Amino acid sequence: MRAVITTEAGGPEVLALTDVPTPEPGPGQLLIAVTAAGVNRADILQRQGHYPPPPGESDLIGLEVSGHVAALGADVQGWAVGDACVALLAGGGYAEYVAVNAGQVTRPPEGIDLVSAAGIMEVAATVVSNLDAVRFRDGESILIHGGTGGIGMFAIQYAKAHGATVLTTAGSAEKLDLCLTLGADVALNYHDDWVAGVKDATEGRGVDVILDNMGAKYLTPNVRSLARLGRLVVIGLQGGTKGELNLNALLGKSATVTATSLRFRPAQEKAAIVARVATDVWPLIASGQITIAHQTRFPIEEIRAAHEQLGGGSNVGKVVVTF
After folding, report:
1. Which end of the chain lies in a sparser environment, N or C, as judged by fewer CB atoms within 10 Å?
2. Domain region containing 233
3. Helix (H) or strand (E) holding 301
4. Is 293 helix (H, G, I), strand (E, B) or coil?
């Protein structure tokens, strides 16, 4: 089968499309013939040598795919060859075929074509699992950083569907307008004093939850922006890995800081997350409460261009590669 490999750690130029052996589905696994694969920030980190796959997983890049069931491993029930599906992976998505535990596979949302569906699972699973981890409740206030990325665009709509007051950050007037169109109540330019903007918007209270993709750079201002009993969950490290945490500020608010990685969760946890996405998120998409983020699509032969698009800083929504 054709698959994308990395010849070494580095820039997009290290990505190469070549022939590799087709995987065989093991017990409890499905083999998926891939229609399309989502491209994520984690993929860029892996290409650069900073985010290796968990032990025992494919060293090919790619954390989410859509396609059709091509073969069933032993003990798999509820699926048949030819069924349309989407899957959450720990690796292996940039390939014509991928083998994955059946619990990490589900049907695509009703009415959504497979190419569009390829860019949904990773963002949905990331947002839902992390908001569950910090006990996000209907009607709370939330600050979502990076409101026009794939995760941000989904998170704004998901939080609004659950009655939240949504604040978000973005880097241009055009992107701020897009955030408001998606349902954000307040959109703040991160080039300005967004901490003051959060305080003004919440009348000094701060927000209950922060979904952060920046890491170290935003650690101190995020803590300042939390309400009493607020919860900060770090899901990305675009702003660095090491920051200084003022424990006295955290203590004074009885606040919580946590960080999670979806990729390294055990298979049983991933299966539970996929099931939760199917039951909670898919109906919101089918009803129109959540719309699919804008996608920039590339054929797999242009995988380098796809990585350049996502890594360039101006991308809006999701990047998807098609087979």
Report:
1. N
2. 124-259
3. none
4. coil
Question: Measured between alpha carbons, how far is 5 from 300 in angstroms, rounded to an integer?
Answer: 12
**Residue 73: per-residue pLDDT:** 97
> Is 186 strand, coil or helix?
strand
Per-residue pLDDT at 228 = 98
CA distances from 319 to 8, 43, 150, 224, 233 (A): 23, 11, 8, 33, 24
Q: Among all chains, which residue has been given the structure tokens 């013939």?
A: 33
Structure tokens at 255: 């606040």
* Average pLDDT, 10 consecutive residues per value, the chain (323 residues): 97 98 98 98 95 94 98 97 98 98 97 96 97 96 95 96 97 96 98 98 98 95 98 93 93 96 93 97 96 94 97 89 97
Q: How many domains does the chain have?
A: 2
Strand partners, 143: 167, 210
Domain co-membership, 112 together with 180: no
Q: Of 209, 244, 259, which residue sits at a domain end?
A: 259
Chain-centre distance for alpha carbon 201: 27
Tokens 């979502």, residue?
144
User: 81 and 172 in one domain?
Assistant: no
Q: What is the pTM of this model?
A: 0.93
Q: What is the CATH number of the domain that holds 212?
A: 3.40.50.720
Residue 13 is classified by DSSP as G
How far apart CA 71 and CA 75 sit, in angstroms, is 12
In the prediction, which pLDDT does 315 show?
87
Q: How far apart are CA 233 and CA 87, in angstroms?
A: 24
